[in-house]
Amino acid sequence: MWDELLTPMEEVAEHMHVWAIAEVEEGMLAPISYELTGAARDLADLLGVRAEAVLIGENVSGLAEELIWRGADTVYVLEDQALGQYRTQAYLRILADLINEKRPEIVLFGATDVGNDLAPRLAQHLDTGLLPDCTTLEVDQAERILLGTRLTHDGGLMETNACPQKRPQMATVRIGAVEPFPPNESRTGELDRIVVAVAEGEIRAQVLESVKEESRPALGEAKVVVAGGRGLGSAESFQLLEELAKELGGAVGASRGAFDEGWVPKQYWVGGAGGTAVAPDLYIACGISGAIQHYLGIKEARFIVAINSDPRAPIFKVADVGIVADLHKVLPALIDELRAMRS
Ligand SMILES: Cc1cc2nc3c(=O)[nH]c(=O)nc-3n(C[C@H](O)[C@H](O)[C@H](O)COP(=O)(O)OP(=O)(O)OC[C@H]3O[C@@H](n4cnc5c(N)ncnc54)[C@H](O)[C@@H]3O)c2cc1C
């Protein structure tokens, strides 16, 4: 199928193993690290090679064991004082050096702020390709080619990309696209400390101050999601959802209807076709009709509450509790009630 596009065999043979680039947040492994390690494990088993994780930061070696429990055979640990906070130039240089030395066959990044910044630059630096924003990863075992599928055209089309000519093959993987392995504490593996020295002078960016956003769970990871649709009537009405989400410790989402109206940015968009798929314990849909594309993104929610003024709205067919009412009356009453319970 790939014919002339294929990399010469001698070059392919030089590259082995599947890598997951772990991310650390506030001294802990970010959930994407487990997902990438699981994906690397699956691909490595299909290709008959090792799954390896790369851990970069300051004093992070204590986290390596968890990556082994989640499927890594080897964890490369790159520690330096200058690596405590992500800075493009430093991470780019040390990862490029490590890849050039160890020659992995596949390198997986999260489609996160860090991964989206680092992976394309690294691909350019290493003169290879990048399969972006993958929701599915497969492999052509005969030709050892990674196939990364992503949604395009607002979720209306799926596109599969490959990089048959260059090594390593690199991909960014969407948060939540891959189910991580549960930790297996009896798994053993190798910890390989790589000596790195990063001089402050080689990094142009300096972090002067870090300002933490008000603590809110990310939409894809929240236990409670309060989402609004076109029925909210205005961008201002989203303030009601913000207040309710704050009371419940949840995240705010939106239908594509609300996004199309320009009331919220795209990262709020919930859905199975373009939006973020969510799986909270509680999903509260306010003024959302319940179109199939929206439902596909919430079908893993454990309990759905729908507030809609139209008793025939399709959302009521999938809701565990339905409230047929004007949301502008229900939401303020609900927020008041929750505040009263707390005080
Ligand atoms: C290729 C493609 C991909 C798509 N992907 C997604 C996706 O990922 N996610 C997604 O959400 N959509 C997606 N859509 C769009 C989807 O088909 C619907 O158009 C969209 O979900 C509708 O948004 P809505 O429910 O907010 O708006 P509407 O369908 O207009 O519903 C508004 C609801 O609010 C109710 N309402 C009005 N006023 C009030 C009030 N005062 N109080 C209470 N209720 C009230 C109404 O009864 C109505 O049910 C996609 C469409 C296409 C073609």
Description:
With 343 residues, the chain is an alpha/beta fold. The protein folds into two domains: 3-202, 3-Layer(aba) Sandwich (Rossmann fold), CATH 3.40.50; 219-342, TPP-binding domain (Rossmann fold), CATH 3.40.50.1220. The protein has ten helices and 17 strands. A hairpin with a 4-residue loop joins strand 9 (145-152) and strand 10 (157-162). Helix 4 (88-102) crosses helix 5 (113-126) and helix 6 runs parallel beside helix 10. The radius of gyration is 23 Å and the shape is globular. The model has no long low-confidence stretch (mean pLDDT 92). The protein binds flavin-adenine dinucleotide.
Write the layout of secondary structure elements.
Elements: H1 9-14, E1 18-21, E2 24-25, E3 28-29, H2 31-47, E4 51-57, H3 64-69, E5 74-79, H4 88-102, E6 106-110, H5 113-126, E7 130-134, E8 136-140, E9 145-152, E10 157-162, E11 169-173, E12 190-194, E13 224-228, H6 238-248, E14 251-254, H7 256-260, E15 282-286, H8 292-295, E16 303-308, H9 315-318, E17 321-324, H10 327-342
Parallel strand pairs: 1-4, 1-6, 4-5, 5-12, 6-11, 7-11, 13-14, 13-15, 15-16, 16-17
Antiparallel strand pairs: 2-3, 8-9, 9-10
Brief description of this entry?
The protein has 10 helices and 17 strands. The protein has 343 residues and is an alpha/beta fold.
